[in-house]
Structure formats: structure tokens, C-alpha cells
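Weekly puzzle thread! Below is a chain. First person to post its structure in C-alpha cell form gets bragging rights.
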Amino acid sequence: MAKCTWSLSLSLVIQVWLLSLHSVVALEAGNSGRVRRTVLNRKLAEGGNMSTDLAATKMDFMEWVSYVGSKKHETGTSEIFYTSAAASGNVITVSKSGGADFTTVQAAVNAVPSNNKQRVVIQIAAGTYKEKVNIPSSKPYISFIGAGSGVTKITWGDTASSAGSTFKSASVAVNSDYFIARDIAFENSAAAPPPGAVGRQAVALRIGGDKASFYSCKFFGAQDTLYDYKGRHYFKNCFIQGSIDFIFGDGQSYYYGCELHSIASSSGSLTAQKREKPSENTGFSFVNCKVTGSGMIYLGRAWGAYSRVVFISTYIDDIIVPQGWNDFGVSSHQKTAFYGEYQCSGPGANSKNRVAWSYQLTASQAAPFQTISFIDGSSWVQS
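Winning reply:
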């Protein structure tokens, strides 16, 4: 009898679990821990019968329970609630063509309750959403899930001049913690300015929340495309386009497998990191990335006195100024900035004429920047 009761209870629990998986991103159990759309999700979306699938998914459910139990905890709460929607089942849909909860992304964000404690997935259908989006700091645990970075895009065209500042020019501003974006593009459509132009900075996305992750996303802009403002951030398999300082800010961020694409017509800079004190843990680490495009650009400019940027195992095309790095016109930054390269390849990786104050790193010097431990990511990053 006890066995029958357990079987019935398990069935009910699994049914609740299945409901929470409907049209949300589920966490795949197993060695990889990757996020994927499960076959079961597709069956449910296509009208599959839950009761007939139940027996076949008991093993999946138990593996999922085991996975959750194995996750590290932070402040007493399983990290699964920070990085997956599977536990909450809170889904908001957006589509320009109707048939969804909202037709704009901002309306969906507005619908999320302040100070929410569970992940809310905002599923954004294919389309170009011409709007300025702001996520306030009071709304953590939000995910933007697009239909693909080639078909789902949020775009606006403000500049520092039109918006009042570079900070305010962002097409999408994320101020909350535990944000996740996947399979979506962010764009600032303002025209690329010539070097030295005033007020033409145009941010596609500004990220100022802590523990944010971006997977298979695209960022389009020219000057100041991605404002990596502050907080710990993870970027995987992303495409980031720009011309001048197109990844900038004082974030503590790890970029893995990303393509950094210059559209500079002449001169420019890939990064402008703003670490200002030696006590700050901030900096940008690029691992297994690609640097491509046009122009002759610097790998980085020292926006902050203690600016810190490292490139590891990255392919660099022939678009880099031989000196590699720039002190932002402040010679004292040469004594305090930390710019390093380790085991990079490609014609732009030639270190022969690099500035004397940059580093060709040893294995031990590169080690702190080589994994997600640089952003304390072992408990919150989905690899």
C-alpha cells in the first residue's frame, strides 16, 4: 500500500513538474548541465498527452531532482532558482503579431512583480521590437528568451546627445540581479560616428546587475555598444559588434567563445575598462574568442587608472594596432593598468611591437582569468 501511495504521489508531483516545464527553459540533467528545450516540452507544446508520457519521464524527473540536490546553495536558496525557470513555471509571452500576453517587451517587464523571488521567463517571439526597455533593480530573476538572435531583436536609436548621456542612451538597460538572456539580439541603430565625434556614443545594452548571463546573444552598435557597467557577468557564444570602445565599463566579466567584430572605418578600440582602484576585482577576461572585422583598433584603452583586460587563447585578425594597447592619453595609467595576452593566435596576435607596459602572460599569470572562477561563477553560471 505504501508503495502504491508513493507511486501516486510521485505521479502527481511529476505532473506538476511537467506543467512547470510547459514552454519554459528546462535544465537538462546529466554531465553537461546544459540548458535545452526538451523533447517533452515539444510534445506538450504540440498537444501531447501528459498521462501517456508520464511513465517515460519518471527517470528524467528523478535525475532532475538529483541535479537540484547536487547544486550548491547560496544564502540558503538553491541556485536552480537563480538560473532556471523549471522550478517556478512563471512564463510571460511577447509577440508583435498578437496571440501572446503582450506585444511589447517593456509591458512584459512591467508585469513582473517587484521584489519577486522566483525566475520569470519572458519569451519573445521572432520580430524586431522597436522600443527602449528598462528593467529596474527591484525586478531580479528575469530571463529574456528569444526565438534566435537572428530573428528576435530589440532596437532603439538614442545617442548620448539625444538621451542626455551615454548612460541613458541604452536601448536595453538591465539594473537587476540574476538576469539571463538567450537567443536574442540587442541593437542601437544610431549611425556609426567618425573618431572624435562628440555626443555620438550609442549603447545597445547596459548591464548593471550582478550575476547576469548571456547565451548566444548578439549586440549591434558602433561607439559604446555594450556597457558592461558593473557587477559579475558571463557571456557565452555571443557576437558583439562595434567600432570605438565597444565593450566598456567597470564590470567583472568573463567572455567565452564570443566573436568581437569591429566595424571601424579607420581607428577604434575594442575595450575601455574602467577599474579605478587596485582593490577592485573588476576586469574583462576573453577566453577562446575571435577578434574580427575592419579598421585598425586597439585591444583596449585604459579608461580607468587600473584598467584590467586579458585575452586568452583568442584568435586575433589583422586589425590590431601593433602596439596593442592605449593609455587613454594619461601616461600614469601605464604604471597601473593590467593588460595581458596568453596563447593567442592570428596575425593580430603578434606581440613584437606591443607596448612595454603590457604583458605576455605566463601560465600562472593567466590562470586567475582562465575560468569562471574569475567571476565567482561556479555557483551561478550555467556552462
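Puzzle host: Confirmed. Bonus trivia for everyone else. Helices lie at 2-21, 39-45, 50-70, 80-83, 105-111, 160-163, 363-366.
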